[in-house]
């Protein structure tokens, strides 16, 4: 059962970015399903590791395209990405400490990131990228 289904609300129209965003949504759905089955802790390490990888490749992709499009909000957007990476690092440390509330915390964080960052913050660079012919 999917918790969040891909919607045009999240779409940037840039295929590489949209595909990466879909992967993030799949991670949230995986956590949600695991929570429903009371197996959240079993999936937690995988999701945190994937979020770490995601922060590396996705943010590089986005920021490279923002530079190419001469997006004026790049510096602020980079700060959002740093905050995400720092939060994932914190999750990894809490996992090592066997924090009992971490499964719910990761799920809530991903839900908020998808609903706020993908649907609002990322939409800010779309006009610049379209103008630059990036799709």
TrEMBL record:
Limits of the Hemerythrin-like domain: 12-128
GO terms of molecular function: metal ion binding
InterPro entries hit by this protein: Haemerythrin_Fe_BS (IPR016131), Hemerythrin (IPR050669), Hemerythrin-like (IPR012312), Hemerythrin-like_sf (IPR035938), Hemerythrin_metal-bd (IPR012827)
Keyword annotations of the record: Iron, Metal-binding
Pfam families: Hemerythrin
Entry-linked SUPFAM superfamilies: Hemerythrin-like
CDD domains for the chain: Hemerythrin (cd12107)
Similarity comment: Belongs to the hemerythrin family.
The protein, known as: Hemerythrin-like domain-containing protein
């Amino acid at each position: 059962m999917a918790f969040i289904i891909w919607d045009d609300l999240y779409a940037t129209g840039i295929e590489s970015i949209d595909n990466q965003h879909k992967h993030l949504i799949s991670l949230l759905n995986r956590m949600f399903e695991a929570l429903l089955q009371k197996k959240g802790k079993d999936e937690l390490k995988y999701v945190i590791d994937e979020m770490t990888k995601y922060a590396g490749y996705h943010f590089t992709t986005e920021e490279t395209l923002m530079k190419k499009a001469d997006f004026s909000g790049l510096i602020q957007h980079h700060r959002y990405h740093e905050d995400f990476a720092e939060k994932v690092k914190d999750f990894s440390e809490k996992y090592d400490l066997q924090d009992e509330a971490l499964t719910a915390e990761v799920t809530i964080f991903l839900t908020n990131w998808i609903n706020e960052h993908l649907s609002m913050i990322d939409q800010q660079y779309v006009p610049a990228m379209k103008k630059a012919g990036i799709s």
